[in-house]
Structures are given as C-alpha cells and as structure tokens.
Design goal:
Elements lengths: L1 E5 L6 H13 L4 E4 L10 H9 L3 E4 L3 H7 L9 H13 L2 H9 L3 E4 L3 E4 L15 H10 L4 E4 L6 E6 L2 E5 L3 E3 L5 E5 L13 E7 L4 E7 L3 H10 L5 H8 L2
Parallel strand pairs: 1-2, 2-3, 5-6, 6-10
Antiparallel strand pairs: 1-11, 4-5, 7-8, 7-10, 9-12, 11-12
The protein binds fe (ii) ion.
Fe (ii) ion (FE2) binds next to loops.
Length: 243
C-alpha cells in the first residue's frame, strides 16, 4: 500500500491541489492528513471540505484546527497566528468547526504505524520536535516502530538503532533499518525549511520506504488571496521565502 502523508495545509488550496495531483501521479492508494488543515491561509473552508472528501484513512487534529473550532483564548499564539485564527473562525460554518473539534489527536495504521500532529506520547501538549534532544525523548514515547508527525513544518527524521538516535534530513529513508523511525512529513501549505515548494511524503508500506516530495504550486494566486482577504500581508510574503 502506498500512502500520501500530508500535513499543515493551513488553508492553502493551491498547494493542496498541487500535492494531491502529484500524489495521484505517484499512484497512492490513500491519503492520511496529520492536521492543521486551517489557519494562516485564505481558503480554510474549501480546504476542509477538500480533505473531508479525499480518500483519507485518517485525519488528525492539529493545534490550529482545535483553536479555530472553538472560542478558546489565543494567548499562546503569536500575533500573526492569533489574527489568522480569529479570521478563520469567522469563515467556517458551525458544522465545519464542530467537525474540526471532533478529530482525533492520533491514529494507528495497522500494527506498526502511528500518526500524530505534534509529538507522540503527549500530542495534546503541542510540543515541538525539531532538535536532537526533542527527537530523542519523543521517539522513546512512541508505541509503534514507525511514527509520522507534522507541526514544525520542517521535514526531518529521527532514527533509533542500538540505543542511539540519529537525526537525518535526507528526505529518503529505508525503514527496514533500526528499531524505530519518527519522521516529520513536511508542510503542504506553509513550509519553513527555506524551500517554498509544497511538501508531502510518500510512504510505501510494502517496500518499507519513505520519500519526501516537493511540488511547485500557484504561489502568486495564493498570495493574492491572502492579501485580498485582509489577512496580514506577512502571511503572503513568508510563503515565497519558505519561512
Ligand atoms: Fe501547522
């Protein structure tokens, strides 16, 4: 089975459409969405309906999804995220917001794959896994040999073998090696690794390998929609920088 792992779409319809087209070309059987469907981008409702209608075997809740779902306090969000979330709440219907609230924090695929938005062990903490020490502790907490996550918008992998944890960013991983893998699948709609192109990961469960893929999309249209919506212009500018 080939799975397309997509995460952190953030209301970027142009990037989502480009990623889905690339995944179809790669012959994926199903999709799995690791959260943050909404927030920052100009098309939260359209992206939500698009994901709902995609053949997803799992849809995980991200922090932006849950903050858009209800009226909880936004003190933990930076000013850009906070303004975008208030705007996003106004765009979504009551049904869409309760659907976001109903999403699970994690899911299992078979016996050996777990999916989470932020970090295994305590996904509700919305902790970030970016550096070696964070990956070291997170990989101990996962309960399956393979775990995939998003949240940081930076694709990377942690590999546990013989008690050691290595941090990798090759984007192509042989999952038959070692005891555990914890892999960030990249961000569809707001990459932050300096590459503006949409990111997603192709998981081949039969071949036991994962490949990060990058896809160009209609960045200009996406940026124009953000500005036209009255969202902070910085949210459009950062997309070109991949930051
Ligand atoms: Fe995100």
């Amino acid at each position: 089975m080939k799975l397309a792992l997509i995460s952190d779409i953030h209301g970027n319809l142009e990037a989502l459409e480009a990623v889905v087209a690339d995944a179809r070309q790669c012959g994926v059987d199903h999709f799995a969405c690791l959260g943050d469907i909404v927030g920052y981008g100009a098309d939260p409702g359209v992206c939500l309906e698009y994901i709902k209608n995609l053949d997803c075997i799992a849809i995980i809740q991200g922090n932006h999804d849950v903050y858009a779902a209800d009226e909880r306090d936004l003190a933990s969000f930076n000013p850009l995220a906070s303004r975008a979330t208030i705007w996003t709440r106004e765009q979504l219907t009551v049904e869409q917001r309760s659907w976001l609230a109903s999403l699970p924090l994690q899911a299992l695929v078979g016996d050996d794959v777990s999916l989470v938005h932020a970090t295994p062990g305590e996904p509700e903490s919305w902790a970030y896994v970016r550096f070696h020490d964070e990956g070291f502790y997170a990989i101990q907490a996962q309960t399956t040999p393979l775990c995939f996550y998003g949240h940081t918008h930076i694709p990377m992998a942690f590999h546990l073998a013989d008690g050691d944890v290595d941090q990798l960013d090759d984007g192509a991983y042989d999952l038959t090696t070692g005891e555990r893998w914890l892999i960030n699948v990249g961000s569809v709609g707001q990459p932050r690794d300096g590459d503006w192109r949409a990111a997603w990961s192709l998981l081949d469960l039969d071949a036991r390998r994962l490949d990060l893929r990058r896809v160009e999309y209609d960045l200009v249209t996406c940026q124009q929609k953000i500005v036209a919506a009255g969202l902070p212009p910085r949210l459009a500018e950062r997309l070109a920088q991949g930051r």
